[in-house]
Amino acid sequence: MIEIVALSTIVPVLMLLPHSLGLPTSAGAKKSWAAYLVMIVSYLCIVIVPILLFLTILAGWTYEFAILLLVPLLFSCKRSREERPNSLRQSISSYRVAMMVVTCLCILAVDFNIFPRRYAKTETYGSSLMDLGVGSFVLANALVSREARNLATPNWKTAITSTSPLIILGIGRLISTTVVNYQVHVGEYGVHWNFFFTLAAVAILTSVIRIPSKYCGVLGSLILFGYQVWLSLGLRSYLLSDKRGPGIISQNKEGIFSVVGYWGMYLVGVQLGSYLFFGCQTTPSRSSRWTRNRLYILSIFFWILTVVLDKHVERVSRRTCNLPYVTAVIAQNLQVLALLMLSDFIPGYKSSALVEAINQNLLATFLLANLLTGLVNMLMDTLNASSVVSLVVLIGYAFVLCITIGLTHFRGIRLKFW
User: What DSSP designation does 168 have?
Assistant: First the structure.
């Protein structure tokens, strides 16, 4: 967990450091493709590639660089005053992009030997970096959801229609992995279930069972507490057992039952989003300062709660989405968001061109990353690649992914799936 705290410091600090040093990363009005491409490549070289290095060959220096990078940023912030009334929206966008960038880098890097095994998903218990991925997607969606913004929730028919792309993507992933005989760990979600089905199930549940945002936190907490008790009374043994019956539920028991935990997490996230971002504040600047202070407090609270639950209740388990896993996901995500809100203290801060591009096409970025990952795995033996070859491939992958998304944004294309 301490290493995740360090990594969750490095990533947002790297995203802010170029702005604090006055390096150009924003394309402004996007006057020409050449100028825009320079901005994209600049951000790639000074932010994305260093993040990739910390996930691979520099993984042994995580603690040292977390301190080394944070200190100059804090000094830079100390010399400045808050003059950014619209910073909250930019910070949320940067947070969502940070989550997506780390996810996209990890899904290919994990196939190479230069990626530390301790960052890969755990078998049953543990809190690795990649374990937090699916939970972070669910929480990020909850924090800025319609429910958090107190907007009308669509009925269940509309919800099924709007989540149909996720269901189609889930079916497409199932068919494609079966056809190409792509290695899938059955113990993660089950035989047929996958990440897209989990997102769709959470969205449908939220629409079918409509709950005002002010009650979401209470209900979500009750669901998570009840689910944890259920796990302790025997559900855990059933979910973690290698035995599977012929029925569809037994075949996909991990994916189906963990939806309860993810839904509870989503509801708590809705309450947090409503409380932190969409409450009634008198002025935008006060809102930003008010939110930032509470993000620090809540992040520390949830980290402490995670440690207590992990030690005295049950170890963190992504496979079952138990209560300690949920608190770990919330703690890590709020920490990243809190650090990104230090952008308030950077004079003239502007969101970078690449951050804007990825934020406009989050799902498209993730889908392209999955396609490129599959392509790389079909073209080469990643596990036996040398460190140099692995690093070259990963950097090339990052460049292709980001430049493609940048070009899509430059052309004004927004791939909205629902």
Answer: H
